[in-house]
Structures are given as C-alpha cells and as structure tokens.
Amino acid sequence: MEKISKDIKSQPQKIFDYYSGKLDPEEGKKIEEQLSEEDAALLASVKRLLYLDKQMNELSEIDTRKAYKKVASRIHANRRSRIFEIFGRVAAVIVLPLIGLTGILGYMQIKDTFADTAYVEVNAAPGTISKYQLPDKSYVWLNSGSWLRYPTRFNTKSRNVEIRGEAYFEVESDKDHPFYVNTPGGLSVRVTGTKFNVSAYDDERTIEVVLEEGRVNVENAAGNINMALRPGECFYYDRQDKNTYVKSIETYEKTAWKEGKVVFRNASLDKIFKFLSRRYNVDINFVNKKNTEYNYRATFTGEDIFQILDYLSMTAPIKWEVATPTQNCDTTLSRKRINIYLE
Quick one: signal sequence residues (predicted)? Predict the structure, then answer.
C-alpha cells in the first residue's frame, strides 16, 4: 500500500493526463495497476470535476487543474479518504432567476494552513444560493453574497466553521463533538444536531439566529452572552449597542430563501427592498422617499424582481424604473439599478 501511495504521489501530472485522455493505452494501463480502490475513488471524483470544467470553461475562477494537483500531492495511506471529502461532498447549486451559468459552481478555494489541516473556503456568488455537504455529512446552504470556511477534517473535540453573510444549517447529531458556527461579530452558535439559520452580513447592524428544530446555544467569547433557543425563536444581537433579545417568529420567513422563495411577513418597504437588492444582485434606489409605513405579507415562488415590484405597486403608491447602466473605468457596465418613486 505504501509503495502504491508513493508511486501515485510522484506523478500527479501523469495521472492528470490519464484522466484527460492524453496517455496511450499502455501507459494508461500502468496507471490503473497502481491505483488502490481508495485512490481510484478519489481520482474518479477528480475526473467528474474535469468534466464540469470542460463543460463550463467560462468559470475561470475555479481552477480544477490547480485543485487536482493540490489533492494529488497530498495522497498518502492514512489520509486518502479524507481528501476525497473535499470534492465528493460539494453539492449542487440552486441558481436564482435572472442569474446566468456563471453562478452554478460558486467559488471554491482549498487552503493549507498547517501540515495536517486544510481549509475549504466557498462563496455564493451574488444572486445565487449554494448548497454544500460538510465533512461530518451536515448540510449548509449559503445565501447570495455569503462566505463559508471549514476544515477538510474536523478535529477530535469539536466541529468549527466560520461564516460571513447568511447560511442555513442541517447539522448531523453528535453530542460528543459539538458544532460551532462562528460569526464576524464575535458570536458563536453551539449545537449538537439541529436545523437553524444564521444571518451575519457585514453591512447589517444585527446578527440573527433562527431555530427551526432541536436546540442551540448562542455564546460569545467574553462569556456575557449564553442563551438557549427553542424552536420558533429568533435571537437578535445589535453589534453597535451590544443589546440582545429573543422573539417568537414564523421561522419560514427567515428560512424560505434556501428553497428559492421570497417570503415577507409584515415587512416594511425598507426591509423588502434591501432583501430584494441582495437576492437579485441589483441596486435599489429611493429617488423621492416620502414615507415607508406600508407593510406587506406575501410569498413569491419563481417570480423575478420586476414581477414582485409590479405586485408591490398595486397596493402602495410606488413607481419604479430600470436606470440606464453606466460604463466603469475598466469598460465594464455598472450593476443593474432600479429607481423607486414613493409618492
């Protein structure tokens, strides 16, 4: 087994050429004879990535050759199955309306920070939702413009991940290895197995934790926050004044985004337009904002932003228009902007 691992490790380029169809049959047969069952499973996952790369070469931010070489160079007898998890557990991506093919795979990086610890960083591109499976078989959905960092292998004591933005988690139950979600605001959510949502965007003043099932504890490093939530509750933390409070809510309003739905429950226009701006990757500008006392309760499934704005305009005195895009210094066009006129 050790001899096979050394042989594989010594020739990553040749294995890459094998899966790219560049080797003659005789050389290919030699490669196959050196592969253990675990090696073959790992490299089969790489082959699938190469196929996706061929079909979606527009996605220049994902360099599968580089990712492959990093994996191939780390194959040895006691870590092969763990490395497979880097690729085999990356799940499909849900693409929102009006978003092109460039959002399908999001953005993934594999970073080595220590000899025995590698981290994966994934991003949900603006206007997309991404779904991933973690090394412990837990699932996480990333909302538009969000970032997640996790190790390729959790340690023996706990399971730690970091997020910026918004993420929904379905955590595999393991009481001996608690799961921690760490946010930029210094808050951590500790769970053993449950379903919950965390919203911690950099441009939002409030961090929110919503519990759907199970039990979670919200904590901070200073030790002055330690609050247990029950299903149906939302924890709010104000990053400026450091205040916290818990409120019972309809959790579906906070979690339906992972299903591609837009749900408002007694939501103000300010809140709605901020949500739509992030969701559809557009700038929404109040041109003559006079008042925003209108509140809405609605559920949208599959509608684009223009259809939603048309609906809003039926029940409130608003008009909207799409502004002409401007050209940036690098010749690219500015992000789509919608002007809202509130009368």
Answer: none
